[in-house]
Design brief:
mainly alpha
Length: 208
Amino acid sequence: MKNRPDFCDISSYQEFIKYYWYRDELKNICKDLCIDYSGNKLELIHNIEEYFKGNLIKKVKKYRKPYIVTNNITLDTKLIECGFCFNQKFRDFFSNVTGDKNFKFNSDMVATAKKVKEDFDTSFTLRDMLDIYYGKKEYAKYDNSSCQWNKFFKDFCEDTKSNIFSNKLKVASILWGEVRNSTKEKVYTKDLVNKYYDKIKCYINSNI
């Protein structure tokens, strides 16, 4: 497997996107490039893609006018003005609107609320949020890439090969490090234990 190079040694977006990057790494890259370093992983990757195209996306400072939080909420209430958060009050509100007694906020609603607040979008309403819930509108998508390690570890633990290791978390992290820094797909496969067993063995021997 090819090891991941330093960002300064990468010459194209096509090469850059082959590798796995943590959000903090992407944020620092954007800082070094003097481009906008706010947002989630997908937004940061987009900013870096634009950089390779010659477009420097700068952070825009938004004027935030004072507002009064209202307790009387309707579907036309602005999300910013009602101090929206994912608590029982707003869960009950959407439960009444949808008729779903077991109403649960979905991941895209979480991503949308975060972006609305970051952008201080005073036009976005609870009706818009309801459209997000029903999939009628798209404002911000949840960044699923942060779940890759969790799934990798889960799949490793479900593999019977992992039963021989007492510290599964450490062994999985060794394997993840190899996959993360390569151009391979960021998933667990059964051949990884055999392929990197020497590295795993070194760790085991050093902790005896």
